[in-house]
Structures are given as C-alpha cells and as structure tokens.
UniProtKB/TrEMBL annotation:
It comes from the Archaea. Pfam families: Aminotran_3. PROSITE patterns: AA_TRANSFER_CLASS_3. Its EC number is 2.6.1.11. GO terms for molecular function: identical protein binding; N2-acetyl-L-ornithine:2-oxoglutarate 5-aminotransferase activity; pyridoxal phosphate binding. NCBIfam families: PRK05769.1. This is Acetylornithine transaminase.
Length: 447
C-alpha cells in the first residue's frame, strides 16, 4: 500500500500517449477527455491507481462510485470471485433457478427502505435498471406519462435517455425518444429558475418546485391520472452532486400520493454507503415505490444492476427479462459487497465531516469556488467566473482536474463546471488529507 502519490513522469507519459492514440484509432468515442484527464490505468491497489508509465495516483473518483471498496476489489470479494469460478459463474438465471440470486434479492429487500413486500429484477447496468422501472411503472399503473427533473442523469438507452436532462449532447440527434416525459426544475439550492438562495430559504425553494409540478404541469397540460411515476435521483450525480433541501422528497411524496403517482428513486450512483447510509433516500425520510441501483453493487468486479419494487407490481411471465441478470457469480459478489459496505458506513460519515470542513474553508479563500455541497463521501465544488453572476468557469474546472492529476490525484468533473470528490469508502483520514492538500495546490495553480 502506498503512503503518497508518486509521479515519475508528467502525465501523459510516453506509454500513455501511445495508448491514447491507439485508443482513438480503435475504440469508439464516448466521454474521455485526453486533454485534461490523460490517465491510462494499468492496475489498482486499494485507493491507489497506477498508470502504464508507473505513476501512482490517489483516487478521489471511485470510477464514478463503482469502486467504493477500492481496486481491484476488497479481499473478501476476491475470495468470493475465486470460489464462484470453481462452483458456478453463469447458468441462465432467467430460465433456471439458482440459490445465489435468491440470497441477493432477499438481502436487497431487507436493507432497502420500507418493511412492505418487495421483489427484485436483476440486469447489468444502471440504464437497464431504469428501463425495467419504466416498464414496471407503466405495466402496473397502465399510465403513460413520467415526470423527471432537469439536470438528472438516468442513462443512455432510449427509455432512460428520455428521462436524462443533464447535457444537450447526450440527446442531440436522438429524438424522438420515449413519448410523455415531462421535465421540471430540481430544487438546486445554488442555481434554480427563481434565483432563490435555497440554503437560506429551503422551504421557499421546495414550495416553488412543488407548485410548478402541481399547478403549472398537472393543472395545465398533463392529466395527473395519466402520470405513471416521478423519476428522481436523491442527489443529482452527473448533474453536479446536487443535494436538495431536506424536506423536498417528503413534499414530493405527498403530491405523488394525492394523484396515485409512483415515486422511482434512481440510486445508481448514490446507493450502498456513498452518502453514509445504504440508500441516499434514507436521509430524506420517504419510502419510494421503486429503487434502481447498479455501479457499486458490482464491488468493482463486473456489471450488475437491480430494480427493487413493491411485490404487487410484479410483471407476468415473459413480459421482461435479460440474459445475464441474476448471474450466479455477480449475485454472490454483490451480496458480499453489501456485507462489506455495511462496515464502512461510520467511516463515511466521519470522513465526510473532514471533507466538508475543508471544502468550506477553500470556498472562503478562493473566489473561483461558487458552491460547495454534498453528503458523506459525495461532495462537489462548483467553479464560477464571478460569484454574483454565477457564470460557469469550465476552463478553471478542467485545469484543476489536470493540475491535480499532475500532482497525483484523480478527480472527475460533474455538472457544467463542478468537480466531484468521491473517494472509495475504504479510504482513511490520512489519505483524505493528502488528497485535499493536492486539491488545494491544484486550485492555486489554476487561478
Ligand atoms: C444516477 C444514474 N442513473 C443511471 C446511470 C446509468 O448507469 P449505466 O452507465 O450503468 O447505464 C448513471 C450513470 O452514471 C447514474 O449516475
């Protein structure tokens, strides 16, 4: 285990440069940013990532909240992988029964909010977990409309993409998607259409959003009894780690209940300890009808997704399925992942306090930081050109990411001009402080 980053050659080193060029030649374009994040990872050790040129970086990204238990994965999960490879990795979990997916489903039902009867649908990714939620909600309610939030990210397959409203490039030329998705403002305390300071006046912000949905949408053009569900992230992830006011979901839930609308909680990025609770929605005191998850459920090993729903919503035989869902190997990996994460929840809450204090201190001292927000080990800082106009400072954000990389810290952007601070849950105080010191040096070098 390393005690600090080691930079042998400024990234991208010669091997990294060569591989990035090859990647560009053979691999489809997705979301890489070789200018600001020219990181070619060869291996991982706990909270450290080692690139192909031998540089050692501290990871504050958890590979977008997947590697919550570090790299390559936790020792107890490695043991499960080797054991299951000897026993059973895959055998049509859709057509044959196996004990492993039952164990996992039982555990997910037990740990998810609400003591009512629930069932679990298994798949391979976040977007698929959301596709299943869309289908279950439509099938159960026989209603067609969905309400989703501006700034949200729910995936990129055509159903989930129709809910996603984070960046225009994600939707450009793909229209038409699923019909009947209505987007409404999210109660972002820092940036909202009413210019309300949501930290000072959270109740006013919540009232405006609820009024927008109830009066402007449901009483003007969308028949409430045709709305199947409201889709939401408890904390918007890709949109910028935006934490809504404490009472927002309770108010939203009251509105949904009044019209018989389901509440679908997309926990793909926040579930399993990221915020210090197993599910981020536990901070907000409501019980959703459907919960979707993926990323961290995998223990950083291989894809798995899950949709947890009220048992009476179950579909009929043949209505929905997929090949790898409930795969034996990944079911046991996910089960062990949950067990290990349970032991780290206190660590997340105490380290979260250290991060919070330090980020607020940085905000005091650097005008380029407009907003700081987060919970547990899910934090973001937003860069602005001017604190009054709140104009996004994308250039500085990108520069900070690269300056941090040069000093041995891996950061990922989010929102339009924010950086997320989302280290693996297994990190300790000393390494958190090392990372935050590098973050400050990177900001200093970028302004
Ligand atoms: C909240 C949320 N939902 C859904 C997704 C889509 O997950 P996947 O990339 O596994 O399809 C993501 C991915 O970032 C996400 O953050």
């Amino acid at each position: 285990m390393f005690s600090k980053p080691i930079i042998r050659v400024i990234p991208p080193g010669p091997k990294a440069r060569e591989l990035i060029e090859k990647h560009r030649e053979f691999v489809a374009t997705t979301t890489h940013d070789p200018e600001n994040l020219p990181l070619v990872i060869e291996r991982g050790e706990g909270v450290w990532l080692i690139d192909v040129d031998g540089n050692v970086y501290l990871d504050f990204s958890s590979s977008i909240a997947v590697n919550n238990l570090g790299y390559p994965t936790h020792d107890e999960i490695k043991y499960v992988v080797t054991k299951m490879i000897e026993v059973l990795a895959h055998a049509a979990g859709t057509d044959f029964f196996n004990p492993y997916q039952i164990y996992l489903a039982e555990k997910l039902v037990k740990i998810s909010p609400g003591s009512h009867k629930k069932k679990v649908f298994f798949c391979n990714s976040g977007t698929e977990a959301n596709e299943a939620a869309i289908k279950i909600a439509r099938y159960f309610t026989n209603r067609k409309y969905f309400i989703a939030f501006i700034g949200s990210f729910h995936g990129r397959t055509m159903g989930s993409l129709s809910l996603t409203a984070s960046k225009p490039v994600q939707r450009k030329r793909f229209f038409p998607m699923l019909n009947g998705v209505i987007h409404v403002p999210f109660p972002n305390p820092y940036r909202n259409p009413w210019h309300i300071d949501g930290y000072e006046h959270p109740d006013e912000l919540v009232s405006r959003v609820i009024e927008f949905i109830d009066y402007w949408v449901l009483q003007h053009y969308v028949p409430p009894d045709e709305v199947a569900a409201i889709f939401f992230e408890p904390i918007q992830g890709e949109g910028g780690y935006i934490v809504p006011p404490k009472n927002f979901f309770e108010e939203l839930s009251k509105l949904a209940k009044r019209y018989g609308i389901l509440m679908i909680d997309d926990e793909v990025q926040m579930a399993l300890g990221r915020t210090g609770k197993m599910f981020a929605i536990e901070h907000f005191n409501i019980v959703p009808d459907i919960i979707t998850m993926a990323k961290s459920l995998s223990g950083g090993v291989a894809p798995i997704g899950a949709t947890i729903f009220r048992a009476e919503m179950d579909l009929e035989t043949g209505a929905h399925s997929n090949t790898y869902g409930g795969n034996a190997l990944m079911s046991m990996v996910a089960l062990k992942t949950i067990e290990v994460v349970e032991r780290y929840l206190d660590n997340v809450l105490s380290l979260g306090k250290i991060i919070k204090e330090r980020l607020y201190d940085l905000k005091e001292r650097y005008n380029v930081i407009g907003d700081v927000r987060g919970l547990g080990l899910a934090w973001a800082i937003e860069f602005v050109k001017d604190r009054n106009t709140k104009e996004h400072d994308i250039k500085t954000r990108d520069r900070v990411i690269y300056e941090a990389l040069k000093r041995g810290l891996v950061l990922l952007g989010c929102g339009k001009s924010s950086i997320r601070i989302a280290p693996p849950l297994i990190i300790d105080e000393e390494r958190i402080k090392i990372g935050l010191d590098i973050l400050e040096e990177a900001i200093k070098a970028s302004v």
